[in-house]
Amino acid sequence: MTAFSAPYIAGTDANRTVKDELTAIISRRSARRRISVTDLLNPRQTFFGRTHPEIPPSPQRRQAMLAGTGFHETFGRAISTEEFVEQLVEWQEIVGKIDIFEQIPIEVKTTGALPTDVLVGRAENVEQLGMYCVMVERSDGLLLYYRRAASGRPAALQVYQLEFRDLPGIGAEMVRRRDLLRDALRTGTPDGLPRCEWLGRNCDFQDICGCALAEPLERMVGPETVGLAERPDLARRLMEGVSDTPAGGDIRFWELVFPRKTALRRSSAAEEAQTPEERMASLERRGFGEALNDAVWFGFPGEVKRVRLPLDGIWASILLFRGIPTVLRTTKREKAWVERKRLPEVFPHFLDRLAFECALAGSERGRLIVYYAAIPEDKFMVYDLWFRDLPAIRAEMARRLRLLREGAPPDQLPACQPSWLFKYCEFAPGCGCGRNERLR
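RESULT FIELD:
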């Protein structure tokens, strides 16, 4: 079985230039990009992270970071629509990436324990949301805490609504911290940077940071400047609304890549049989870590953006990297690199998604960045692909969308691929995909 898009691929190149640029950004964290909102939460730790790239995050911390990244994306698409997830914002030469931004900013945090006093115990989360509110000129925002299911304990969601009453004050502190961090990076000394919150908490840089002698970090938010209310009603509605079926019963753009599974899921009682807690845990398991995500988003100022494009009443959020539709994916494939000519066979779902995005964007060229998580050497490749006959690709998208909306039987829809997905599908063997199924 091969990708639907295989006959439309006019050429494939391994883009060494972009790969080398990304490698340089990742390996030279000290020369990294612009100042981000997360950099400003603990500027002293940021300084040592950039100036001492030889000290990597601990395995436990890195694992938690990657797990959280994957969950944020998957959860965001479950409670919102794709065009509002992972929104890049810029203000006063500071950049940020909001988990979900529709009318107000929404930040999603994964945690092992739900907080009891957010303003004290999770002040850095409140600061982060406050900075996003400044950047998008909103006084209100939401903080969502998802507690992972573990040891028989169910997943749980806690929601807080916050009102920031001193946006100018937060903005002034953002600029002050930005300038302090810039000066420290320019001079190579952290002397003017405040102590970070990780003092005495197994910080990766605790042997060299000198935090004990630094001035305390002054919080830019507090009880007198922030109104906070827990929203159990909203948490309950979000938990109950987490589903693979979007509101209104319409189709999500990405579901066109797996139309048969989409049809089976929509006609199955399996989703309704799950509790909200079970659905949340399922989202966490499906999350994945995109190790190159920050390098792409923040490493190329002004060259990365998301655009919202329509297809017959649904919308797709497409990442444009230097004007080229770009898809970032992770694989745990333990074998060697995939030869370019075998990409349609090994990664048909990646290529079909890229072909669909190119057809919507009207771009004959697309870019696929694959992170090979199980390979210990160079861990990623950048592939540039050229597609012919974009109208035919768009017509196939419209055909799949029409069949799904009409409730066509699953066997009239293209089989899911690659073939190994059959082994893990909740609808196998009844789905009829399997290794020998031909793509219609």
